[in-house]
Amino acid sequence: MTAFPDDAVLRRARPGDEDGILACIQALADYEKEPDAVENTAAMITATLFGDEPRAFAFVVAGPDDDIRAIAIWFLTYSTWTGTHGIWLEDLYVHEQYRSHGYGVALLSALAEECVRRGYSRLEWTVLDWNEPAIGFYRALGAEALEEWTTRRVTGEALQALAQRG
């Protein structure tokens, strides 16, 4: 657990954090100009992070009253090339009023530490190409842009159609 001068702490998410995590997810969607895209609920977060077989994990920065100020939600990947797992950072978000407190760096550092401790070879994520503040932040931490790779996604009707092709 990492402590900050303002009495906030970085820790693993725990039951009771769901509403604060969901608020960060919604704030991130708002920032990314997709305010209506969030279908997640506190109950879904409970099942995903704290159920019998968690498939995703989260670190949070919580204030003295356990108010969630920042999140890093992640899950495991696997590289066939390296033969090891890695961490995929799905969401990193710091509420605007808490930016420049070191929370983002601390969350990414905790994820890097998790990779090193477990012997994982990669920490990866995506960033929107217009999000210059985030791109600059990541660049300053040594994150490389993989310009030759593009993300692909199949959802909705296309996902249903692809499932039926087999």
Automatic annotation (TrEMBL):
A Pfam family this chain is assigned to: Acetyltransf_1
N-acetyltransferase domain ranges (all copies): 8-157
Parts of the chain that traverse the membrane: none
Signal peptide per UniProt: none
Keywords attached to this entry: Acyltransferase, Transferase
InterPro entries: Acyl_CoA_acyltransferase (IPR016181), Diverse_Substrate_AcTransf (IPR051016), GNAT_dom (IPR000182)
This protein's name: GNAT family N-acetyltransferase
Species per Swiss-Prot/TrEMBL record: Microbacterium galbum
